[in-house]
Structures are given as structure tokens and as C-alpha cells.
Amino acid sequence: MGIGGISIWQLLIVLAIIVLLFGTKKLRGIGNDLGSAVKGFKKAISEDETPIKDEPTAQLKDNQATTSAETQKAKDKA
Predict the structure, then answer these.
(1) Within 1-78, where are the H helices?
(2) Mean pLDDT across the stretch 4-17?
(3) pLDDT of res. 59
(4) How far apart are CA 54 and CA 37, in angstroms?
(5) Radius of gyration of the chain from its Cα atoms, rounded to whole angstroms
(6) For helices 24-77 and 8-22, what crossing angle results, to 10°?
(7) How far is CA 73 from CA 27, 65, 67, 70, 77, in A?
(8) Please, what's the largest Cα pairwise distance for the chain?
């Protein structure tokens, strides 16, 4: 017995029918597209995690720099 009650011979017959219907070039193209989509997704996820962690501290530093500059201007006017 194979996977889920399907024998190896049945899987090979289904695979042969799929190859006959779509052709090897189309199946290869689908595989390439799927692989590049998965790579792009993984890359986007890994790039997306890093800026989120750094973003609040960067905003905090910008706000502190702005308030200190405004404070300095107020002191200069006085």
C-alpha cells in the first residue's frame, strides 16, 4: 500500500496523465514560478521583521532630536 491507500502504480499513472495533459515545459514553468514565489515570500518575511524591531527606537530618536532642537531654539530666543 502506498500513501493513503493509493499504490505506487496508481500514482505513476496519474503522473503520466498529468504530463500528457500539460507537457513537461509547462510543468517546469509552473515549478519555476512556484519556487520563485516561495523565495520572494521568504525574502519579504525576513526583510519585514528587521525594520519593525528598529522602527520604534528610530522614531523615538527622531522625536527626541526634534524636541531638543525646539528646546534649544526656545532657549536662544529667551
Answers:
(1) 8-22, 24-77
(2) 90
(3) 56
(4) 27
(5) 29
(6) 80
(7) 67, 12, 10, 5, 6
(8) 90
Question: Phi and psi (nearest 5°) for 6?
Answer: -100, 130
Q: How confident is the model at residue 19 (pLDDT cuts 50, 70, 90)?
A: very high
Mean pLDDT along residues 23-28: 91
Residue length, the chain?
78
N-term to C-term CA, the chain: 89
Q: Is the Cβ–Cβ distance between 11 and 3 less than 8 Å?
A: yes
Residue burial 13-49, b: 16+ Cβ < 10 Å; e: rest? eeeeeeeeeeeeeeeeeeeeeeeeeeeeeeeeeeeee
